Amino acid sequence: MVSMLYVDTSSGDQYLKQPAVGQYLSTYFITNPKFANEEVIFFYRPKTPIIICGVNQNIYSEVDLAYCKKQGIKIARRGAGGGAVYVDPGNLTYCFVDDDRHHHYLDFKYYAKNAIQTLAKLGVEAAMTGRNDLTVANKKFSGMSALKIGHRFSTGGTLMVDVDLQRAAKALRPPKSKMSSKGVKSVHSQITNLRPYFSPKYRQITLMELQTQFLLNLFQVANLDQVPTYRMDQTDWQTVEKAAQKKFGNPSWVMGTPVTDQNYHSEHFAGVGTVEISFSVTDGVITHAKIFGDFNKMNGDLGEIERQLVGAPYHLANLTEAFKQGNPERNIGPISPEALAKMMVDKRFADKSTIN
């Protein structure tokens, strides 16, 4: 029988200064046999400003790297899908680790309900909107993402309380198609901190107090002593740090390779996310293609699609057939080959702002 367990990560401050360690925690709890029969809830609070990109995103198009370098903002990449987020010590991230036999994989609403209930008790009228966003007064304070390994997965979201929104707006630069789909002109116009929305009684609430309220509501208990808890020790942290640096601390994994193609198109697909394709055409034939995006299917083989595109004539019918052979539903999500082909040939989807 699976039970719920709170994993206390508060002993890891010195380790969590490394962005790679924070990004590896989900993988650690998913794969560690110690937690195989538990549904885990844990929290992560960054120690420094960080941009965290999704596993399939193009960092060079999503992030103003020059600004981040100047401001000392670190860059990280999660193992899960989803979009790029700016986090700093004013943000609290919660994360559930569960088993897919419960049929809740990618059910963001299910894993967001405790956050919504907790915030309601604190005076915040939060709601889930779109595919994986939590909002208040039509402004986003949380984006959720998911990571699946075998039959175990993690799902988490952010609780932005005192995040530096000016920095976030300057550091992030999502594709114009994503902004258009949300009816906004900038990142800054669509995100908010929760602090102004707490009722007067809770207006000065700390992130630790918010975390406590989250746990009390989740476990339906009166105090933390009643919450089943596992406290990370130094052996745990040393294991996490060693494994984290192999992948999440690897600059090649984090940054990827800059693309130098002639074309960069993007489109936001409802229920799936934004898909971006960088591609080159020579003598009417696709000679290179690379797919990026903030879609949550992180286990898909994008290379299968890219290989089908290379060598295809740059015409709608030929590209449609290439996408069919690449199986986008299996590798990206429920998007038709015709829609993806149209995105590549229609100049309205050209996103020049993403090319450095």
TrEMBL record:
Molecular function as annotated in GO: ligase activity
EC number(s) given by UniProt: 6.3.1.20
Pathway stated in the Swiss-Prot or TrEMBL entry: Protein modification; protein lipoylation via exogenous pathway; protein N(6)-(lipoyl)lysine from lipoate: step 2/2; Protein modification; protein lipoylation via exogenous pathway; protein N(6)-(lipoyl)lysine from lipoate: step 1/2
Any one Pfam family match given in the protein's UniProt record, by short name: Lip_prot_lig_C
Entry annotated with the keyword DNA-binding: no
Keywords: ATP-binding, Ligase, Nucleotide-binding
Cytoplasm listed as a keyword: no
Catalysis: reaction(s): L-lysyl-[lipoyl-carrier protein] + (R)-lipoate + ATP = N(6)-[(R)-lipoyl]-L-lysyl-[lipoyl-carrier protein] + AMP + diphosphate + H(+)
Domain BPL/LPL catalytic: start-end pairs: 35-226
NCBIfam families: lipoyltrans (TIGR00545)
Protein name, as recorded: lipoate--protein ligase
